[in-house]
Amino acid sequence: MHKICTDIVIETPINEVWDLLTDFDKFETWNPFITKIKGKLELGSKLDVHLRPPGTKGIDMTPVITKLESGNEFRWIGNLWVKGIFDGEHAFRLEELENGRTRLIQCERFKGILAPLILYIVGEKTRAGFEKMNTSLKNECEKRHRQGFTQCAPLA
């Protein structure tokens, strides 16, 4: 099994980070890596997701939410083409830190027959996409928090 993990500390309370991270309708306004998510944030829900690692045209996937702990974590499992070829379990986990800060941990575990080959080709671009998303989430939440919003809900 292969894994890519990144993390970042956000100077914003956990509930505000969760609010923005789970507002799928607004992803295209701030997220350079996951530019679209359509679907409900519910356990077992199927999502329509467009991922765009840097330097690629991107890919459409239809993962299913497999874990949901409101305010802390959600995961999905998706596959490329057919299950067992290239499967990924993507996780977003938030940890509450002292002084109103939050750590975002974004990981994906890959498995399947073509996982080593595909990750050899796009693994570094995928990691760069995670990091760009993390930084964009941090910047957007911190900006909104400084502006006095009590929630990190999208600006009108």
UniProtKB/TrEMBL annotation:
Query: What protein name does the entry list?
Result: Polyketide cyclase / dehydrase and lipid transport
Which CDD domains does this one have? SRPBCC_4
Q: Record the organism.
A: Methanolobus vulcani
Q: Lineage of the source organism?
A: Archaea, Methanobacteriati, Methanobacteriota, Stenosarchaea group, Methanomicrobia
Q: Superkingdom of this entry's organism?
A: Archaea
